[in-house]
Amino acid sequence: MSAHLSTGGTPGRRPRVAWLLRVNRLLGTDPAFRSLPAFAAAFRGGCYDRDVSVSTLSRWETARTAAPWAAVRRYEELLGLPRNLLTATARTVWRYLAPAPVLDTAPVAAGEDLLEDLLEQALSGAVMAGEDWDRLADGLCARPDVVLMPSGTWYGLAERLVEEMVIADDLPWMLRFETLNRLLNHPRGGRTVVLACAELAAGRSRATATEIVCALDNCGHPDATGRVLAELIAPSGPLAHRGAVMACFRKVGYRHFDRGQLRTLVRALRDSSGAGPVADQVDPLRRWLARTHPEHARDLLGGRGTAAPPPPADTAAGLLTPAVRRVTAPVRAIEPDLVPDTTVAHALVAEALTSPVFDVRLYAAFLLAATPYREPLADAVAAELARPSSVRHEELAVPLLEALRILGDRRHRALLKTLAVRPGVPRRTAYVAVRALGHVAADDADSGFLRGAVAHHHTAWRRTRDPVSAATVESLVYALGMAARDDLLAEIRSDPGFLPTARTAAAGWLAIPGHRRASALR
């Protein structure tokens, strides 16, 4: 987890990236590369133009020194992994775990012709792959004094990037999210990118505002800090408020708030209810802020003040502890002689299932998903969700479903469909299952099921008018958008009796230009 959220014994960013390289080499498809000398002998070539020694590889894989980004790319090439699987994951985790804001990660100077070509591509109706955005950020960050004309160019870039990011998934999402983080910190363009994020989150992208506002956490520009506080004090919507709450973990740790702003944050948290399907991060932020700034503990925690003991790591220890043990079992079972040290893997599984901070769970799952452990871990998570006791207890079901959203594949979609509509499933559990439908094999959409799920949850909303039911319907619209089911989106948009926020979200999906929707898949 991020340095300012870490506790004793938690692996830092360098050990995590080292572990990512080591397990992919040891558990890869080529048994010859399990030998460090053989791997070193083959290393020169591709994107890496010099020899490496066995001792150098050993230092990279044991975290004694950090591996250069070109070396991470070379691991991908030699191991036959999908391009960007290791590099995008490592860069994402490296930035999140940094003890201070990361303004850029390993910019590669791009020729002016290439930069101009990429700018023209991004500002046109052409398709932009995630790697195109990555190379465009390389070129712009290598030129901190670059002037883009006309004046609206920065805004246009940010607008398209954000719109693609919020409908992308997996590696295409990572590449765009990292590009956004880099552009937010660009000396010349960052302020305009902050403005674009704020206006999109409060406007047509309100249905996906959480990640847009949360992306401001690494940006130290005063405008970014002001926008986060504005979404806490007078939210443009519940999802934007959630993104602002999540951003505060790192912005406080990076000291982006001055004393007056910190007091404003404390008052906003004190007045937040912390209830509802998207308010799950309010209480964790209150508790963490009370520990890091005990002078505000009484305001944040009420009468408990500074004497309040830290809450347990989970609220259902009797269920979570054995669940973590069972989910971790595949890590111990896969080639134990090849990977005798499973400390990092065990820590990641524990974080993914028990951390109260959503981003900590998310980034742990990203790392696990970029290794050969992905499939067996996903199966183990699914097996836990098949237990009736797991589904009954939201404290366990929610992190399991969130992990499956990252680790799962088409084999697990049937389970998610069942949990999304089965009678007796707690409402928040069903909501998170519905949310996962937009990520796990979203293109494998069953029209009959989706139509039935929409009717089921919209009927529940009409009956109860509660926030969880409304959020579930809105998440079904997200799943329809990710599945490109424009026919069902059009039906929702044109139904005057449908949940208004869901109609707005459906209209937003239908308004996204085709070239941007196609780009988000790449």
Describe, in plain words, how this protein is organized in 3D.
This protein is mainly alpha-helical and about 525 residues long. The chain is globular and about 65 Å long. About 0% of the residues have low confidence.
Give the arrangement of secondary structure elements:
Elements: H1 13-26, H2 36-43, H3 54-61, H4 69-79, H5 85-96, H6 112-122, H7 130-141, H8 153-165, H9 170-184, H10 190-202, H11 209-214, H12 222-233, H13 238-253, H14 259-271, H15 282-292, H16 297-301, H17 317-333, H18 343-354, H19 358-369, H20 374-385, H21 388-392, H22 394-407, H23 413-421, H24 427-437, H25 447-464, H26 467-482, H27 486-494, H28 500-511, H29 514-519
Helix pairs in contact: 1-5, 4-5, 5-9, 6-7, 7-9, 8-9, 8-10, 12-13, 13-15, 17-18, 17-20, 18-19, 19-22, 20-22, 22-24, 23-24, 24-26, 25-26, 26-28, 27-28
What structural class results from the helix and strand content? mainly alpha
Strand content: under 5%
- Total strands: the figure is 0
Termini distance? 28 Å
Oligomerization category of the chains in this entry: single chain
Query: Mean pLDDT score, rounded?
Result: 91
Low-confidence stretches: 304-315
How many helices? The count is: 29
Major beta sheet summary: none
| Radius of gyration, in angstroms, nearest whole number | 23 Å
Which outline best applies?
globular
Order of secondary-structure elements = HHHHHHHHHHHHHHHHHHHHHHHHHHHHH
Helix content: 55-70%
